[in-house]
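Work package 3, deliverable 3.1, input record:
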Amino acid sequence: MLTNEYLKRVYAEVEKRDGHEPEFLQAVREVFESLELVVDQHPEWEKAGLIERFVEPERVIEFRVPWVDDNGDVHVNRGYRVQYNSAIGPYKGGLRFHPSVNLSVIKFLGFEQVLKNSLTTLPMGGGKGGSDFDPKGKSDMEVMRFCQSFMTELYRHIGQFTDTPAGDIGVGGREVAYMYGQYKKIVDRFEGGVITGKGLTFGGSLARTQATGYGLCYYAAEALKHLKNDSFEGKVVVVSGSGNVAQYAAEKTTQLGGKVVAMSDSQGYVYDPNGIDLKKLFDIKQKRRARISVYADEVPGATYTEGCRNIWNVKCDIALPCASQNEMDADGAKALVEHGCIGVFEGANMPLTPEAIAVVQGAGLLYSPGKASNAGGVATSGLEMTQNSMRLSWSFEEVDEKLQGIMKNIFKACYDASVQCGRPGDLMVGANIAGFLKVAEAMMAQGIV
Ligand code: NDP
């Protein structure tokens, strides 16, 4: 419940204008509820229309993406780029290719990205983009033609000093490479820093592929250590999803001594009491691009259950939701609490519904929002851009060490902010406030723009 009059007024305006964008409203509301704890101390913000400006994207770009399939049939998808906030650096944020993409989804992701990028301490503003194109079931050539068409419009809006996209759901190394190839052809420059998540032979960074999942575990390990005097050692862990973030969260969990017993995709989940065989998982997902159900077909003792939402019924000590927004509702959260789970750390963006967050926090579990715990991906994208500018490549160990340092600092920033606003250990308000204060200071300094 919002009580501050200024925030109430701005939220009512957002609701009036964007009431048809549920994911966007959900993200704004969560952040506003945290900002209530600081907004009273800053009457100058209202005078400067700061919150009204903060909540409105600087620019929204929507475009046609026509492409031709292998049979010669023409398809038209819709492309988006939301350039949300450039107060602290060039817009930065991934591209998502998934049938569920619409303006509400891209705006919520862009809004979250502003705070996430601020938390990394790197000079990156926030943006997000994508398309309702579904790469699943498409041939390589179809994906290539789509990516080329998408970039043929997007190229005019991006650049290493303006806006630098990266991957997200449905956009991995293959798609980033096709888009970069088309960008380079159009502008006739090898401008590596224009997009991150590139292949290692053309400016990509070692450890970028692993960074979001690894970073999530580094953050969770910090929280477990400082707030529960505990660790991953001997813990049973459930990881939802089986894409980029989930795969490397599972790998790092295993390296830190935890046992991942369940993983999912959008159709269902697998349970393996012996611990997920990562070599098998990587083969199924990275090489064969097959469904997670294949895991249960090929691994003795593993079972497959239709329907991904029920994965939270699997008993675990730690839950790492790494699939998509609103994938865990109140029932899922209640199941975790009943089974004695001690912490929920978001790898995906906004995977818990507001009701699920209330259940988890109400029961005293550790909880971290994605904007803090999944920031390792974009932070390492920032490191990729640094290497591109310096024209050199760091080793895997160097990047991984920097990533660990960044995730420790993000945890500390969130925790310190939670203490300062009188809610020690509430990493959600800590993340929202710490991320916002830096952006607010820059916006106030730069005048009404
Ligand atoms: P991928 O495309 O690699 O994997 C996504 C996974 O989530 C797949 O297993 C997919 O299953 C599943 N999934 C997608 N939509 C749904 C849904 N509606 N319900 C249940 N499962 C679903 O994406 P990423 O791993 O890159 O991204 C996962 C999450 O992490 C997203 O929220 C993304 O925004 C966030 N994130 C990603 C970063 C990155 O560096 N990649 C950085 C920070 C955040 P299926 O194959 O069946 O579709």
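Residues 167-170, 212, 241-246, 265-267, 308, 322-324, 327, 347-349, 374, 377 surround NDP (CB under 6 Å).
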